[in-house]
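Our consortium's second objective concerns turning raw sequence data into structural hypotheses that experimental partners can test. To show how far this objective has progressed, the report includes one record in full. It was chosen at random from the queue rather than selected for favorable results. The single chain below, 132 residues long, was entered without modification.
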Amino acid sequence: MAIRRTYVRPMAGWWKRNAFFKRYMAREVTALFVAAYALVLLAGLARLSQGHDAFEQWLDGLRSPLSIAFHILLLAIFVYHTYSWFTIMPKTMAPVVVGGKRLSNAAITGMGLAASAVIGIGFFVFLKVLAA
């Protein structure tokens, strides 16, 4: 009698065959960039605690062309991360009822993206006013 081999499901690349899983993996990868940038900001906080000169050196590093290119790349990644977060949010939260009617997923996503844009622009303007 022949020995039967057990079935082993192939694991490599399974997510590449489904568009839903591709978007999911892209969203997860962008979260890693958010965490990496948090480390950059923590490094700035550590340099600030070391004194004015140390913080100025950190700022000089951020002004380099490579750092500026990195920040432009991060901006694009963060915009996608924000968009993907707000498109999935209405699917995971409790229904929002206003005036006896349930808000559509598109309305919730649009309001979240609009709020993010307003807060982002407001924060940028606030920093410009502080710098002046």
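The partners drew two points from this record. The chain has a mean pLDDT of 90. Strands lie at 97-98, 101-102. Both points have been shared with the crystallography group to help prioritize constructs.
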